[in-house]
Design brief:
The protein is mostly helical. The chain is built from seven helices and no strands.
Length: 172
């Protein structure tokens, strides 16, 4: 029951934050001829810090990333049981502390790398590599997964994050 409640709350939190982010971003019209250079680079981020809405935007994106990673990691752990890489009693014995701290660590590395590296294609590939490595290490060290299960979970997290980036960046 508590796993279903946690999954439902993370899904609801993700959907609410996605709609709030979309509604705040839709007020700015999309330019007809967008810039060819990445708009979110480290130098631009330092200038954006001085803008009054930057902190609110960063907090909102951090909450959205945390909710998405909670949803993706929980679904990934459930998927490990579904494809029989882990046994079902293992899934119910996961500590909430380990799950939430793993999601927090994954979100912190993700937001920090996105903020520092920017949004060019090469940077996003590097960020996907960071997500893979951090998820792999969390799976191996915190959830005591085997190498194959941890690699599967890390690959799933990269795929889920890339799909969410495509959806979010297509709206922005």
């Amino acid at each position: 029951m508590s796993e279903t409640l946690l999954f439902s709350l993370s899904l609801l939190f993700f959907m609410v934050l996605t709609s709030v982010l979309f509604s705040t971003c839709s007020a700015n019209p999309i330019p007809v001829y967008p810039e060819t250079t990445p708009s979110f680079e480290p130098a631009a981020a330092i200038n954006d810090v001085q803008q009054p809405g930057f902190v609110i935007w960063l907090i909102l994106v951090s909450f959205l990333d945390f909710a998405a990673n909670m949803l993706f990691l929980y679904a990934g752990l459930f998927l490990l049981v579904m494809v029989k890489l882990q046994k079902e009693p293992w899934f119910t014995s996961i500590s909430r502390y380990r799950l939430i701290s793993g999601v927090f660590l994954l979100s912190a590395f993700g937001i920090l790398s996105e903020w520092l590296l920017g949004s060019s294609i090469g940077s996003l590939l590097f960020i996907a590599g960071i997500v893979f490595i951090v998820t792999f290490l969390i799976g191996m060290k915190w959830f005591d997964l085997r190498f194959v299960a941890s690699s599967f979970l890390a690959g799933y997290m990269v795929l889920a994050n890339v799909i969410s980036w495509i959806i979010i960046f297509s709206f922005l």
